[in-house]
């Protein structure tokens, strides 16, 4: 994975079509959580499916309409991460996932937050998203609705239960693998001034 401190953007406008889609996804997170908490599980899963589709659509539109922006590059992973964390916390409140599963996912994001001061010293806001991280995010976004629908406290679909937990553990492993790759890249970045001096 290469560090890329600068990127060519098509525009510096905030209100592009892809960015508006990302803003809508972010604003919908409380509604999505409320649906889970009140037991409207099919509606919540449907909503997540729609916003999962818009996640792909906004990337496609950004490229197609030449509306790639620095803000959009930040909003996309933030929206995905917030959906994952919001979902696992809502499932925790419903007692559908154990607290330690939430802690495993949250600890990874805390670890990455600790890297921010080093990145900022080198003129970076964040590291480029790697393919392992994208895979982990995808697996978690697919697994969490399945875990919800497979729970005895929801629709008790056994196939969804087992598929959800298999994908969920795969997603957690990929999530942490990507996190450790980010740590490695940050350590290499932090050593650069000493090595070049």
Largest sheet: none
CATH topology type: Four Helix Bundle (Hemerythrin (Met), subunit A)
* The CATH C-level class name: Mainly Alpha
Arithmetic mean of pLDDT? 88
Gyration radius, in Å: 18 Å
Q: Strand pairing plus helix content: what structural class?
A: mainly alpha
The coarse silhouette is: globular
What's the architecture, going by CATH? Answer: Up-down Bundle
Count of separate structural domains:
1
This entry's quaternary arrangement is: single chain
- The low-pLDDT segments are 1-6
**Portion in strands:** under 5%
- Termini separation comes to 24 Å
CATH superfamily, please? CDP-alcohol phosphotransferase transmembrane (TM) domain
Helix fraction, binned, reads over 70%
Protein name: CDP-alcohol phosphatidyltransferase family protein
Main location: membrane
Subcellular location: Membrane
GO molecular function, one term: CDP-diacylglycerol-glycerol-3-phosphate 3-phosphatidyltransferase activity
Give structural notes.
It holds the Pfam family CDP-OH_P_transf. This is CDP-alcohol phosphatidyltransferase family protein. Belongs to the CDP-alcohol phosphatidyltransferase class-I family. It is globular, with a radius of gyration of 18 Å. It is 75% helix and 0% strand. The protein is built from eight helices and no strands.
């Amino acid at each position: 994975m290469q560090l890329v401190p600068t990127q060519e953007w098509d525009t510096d406008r905030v209100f592009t079509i892809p960015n508006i889609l990302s803003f809508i996804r972010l604003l919908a997170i409380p509604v999505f959580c409320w649906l889970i908490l009140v037991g409207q599980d099919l509606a919540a899963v449907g909503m997540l499916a729609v916003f999962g589709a818009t996640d792909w659509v906004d990337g496609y539109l950004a490229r197609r309409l030449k509306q790639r922006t620095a803000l959009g590059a930040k909003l996309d992973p933030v929206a995905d991460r917030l959906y994952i964390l919001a979902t696992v916390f809502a499932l925790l409140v419903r007692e559908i996932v154990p607290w330690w599963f939430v802690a495993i996912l949250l600890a990874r994001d805390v670890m990455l937050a600790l890297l921010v001061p080093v990145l900022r010293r080198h003129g970076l806001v964040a590291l480029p998203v790697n393919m392992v991280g994208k895979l982990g995010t995808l697996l978690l976004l697919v697994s969490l609705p399945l875990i919800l629908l497979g729970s005895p406290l929801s629709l008790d679909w056994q196939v969804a239960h087992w598929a959800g937990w298999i994908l969920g553990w795969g997603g957690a492993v990929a999530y942490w693998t990507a996190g450790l790759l980010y740590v490695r890249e940050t350590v290499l970045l932090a050593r650069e001034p000493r090595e070049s001096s």
